[in-house]
Amino acid sequence: MNKLIYVKKYFIFICLIIFPVLFSSAQETQDPARIVTANEFLNIVSAQYGTIDDYEANVAISKGKEKMTGIIYYKTPSLLRINFDNPKEQVLVVDKEKLVIYIPKYRVIMQQKLKKKGGVSGAGMASREGLKILKQNYTVAYLESPDFVPLDESSEEMVIKLKFVWKTADEGFRQLIMCVGENNLIRRMICVSADYQEMQFDFTDIKTNEGIPETRFEYDSPASANVFENFLFEAE
Predict the structure, then answer these.
(1) Which residues are bridge partners to 161 per DSSP?
(2) What percentage of the chain's residues is helix, strand, coil (to nearest 5)?
(3) Which residues contact 127 (CB under 8 A, 6 or more apart)?
(4) Where are the alpha helices (DSSP H) in 57-195?
(5) Mean of per-residue pLDDT scores for the chain
(6) pTM for this entry
(7) How many domains does the chain divide into?
(8) Spatial distance between the Cα atoms of 14 and 154, rounded to a whole number of angstroms
């Protein structure tokens, strides 16, 4: 039971955070000569999503001393895969019908059916509609200023930092900090849960429109693994 609780919490976090990060990817650079509001800057970034057909990046997920790393692949409109190297051989896949996560440590496969239509859960968050929901449910402002600032205190990498704060306690996270690089690509997401648990997502070596085939998102589950169907709730 403890294993299932852990997997459920982890999977919900992936759905809420990984997918919204993708919809904010962009290819055009911000005009440094014009100062815009946080909402305007967010609109500039999200407006470019229509140009993204597929996406690949290295991802590192940190929570305290725990760290997960791997490669994330995304293909419009709703295909996603994460091949982890830490934990080794762990896989998360979103195809046209279901969500699948394989945890080799426990030889467990968790599967969740997807709704055919409606809602913005899961990979549906990786869309203009997902961004619209985020803007509706959170207030956005510049964390420090509309100017580029160092990603970290001693870093030479420059980003613009946006802060999202929930409007009601019904949301999964009370606060989000989004770090956008000079190329208008999301570089980092810092997420604070309702109980003040913090997790950080870092995205590096980002590549867009590489022509990723749909076969990349096909996954053959190990025959020896135990399968748990619809472990989160009914088809979602």
Answers:
(1) 179
(2) 25, 40, 35
(3) 23, 49, 77, 120
(4) 128-137
(5) 79
(6) 0.78
(7) 1
(8) 29
